[in-house]
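Consider a protein example.
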Amino acid sequence: VQLVESGGGSAQVGGSLKLACTASVRTKCMGWFRQAPGKQREGVAVLWIGGATTTYADSVKGRFTISKDNAKKTLYLQMNSLKPEDTAMYYCAAGSTLSLASRSYTYWGQGTQVTVS
């Protein structure tokens, strides 16, 4: 499984960015994780590909929205009301268990940087 992210970049505080991740094959679960310098990787939002079930980290609830386009095998993360603490490398992941724990995911993208200032 190959995952290719896009859409990262710089944004101002309160601004928006949208990330996309295209998978080479369909998987059961996909999600977004992030890792800031000196910190552990954390789950941001995950989604069950076959349904509508989603899970968000408390820190992004109400600001970020995860969605999918099954036909395009693409996962999205709409990030609104961005804060400086959202600055991190964002990774797309795929696996078979709906969880915010990174150990539950087998396949990872290369990451895309998001910087908020």
Q: What stands out?
A: The mean pLDDT is 95. The chain is about 0% helix and 50% strand. The two ends are 34 Å apart (CA to CA).
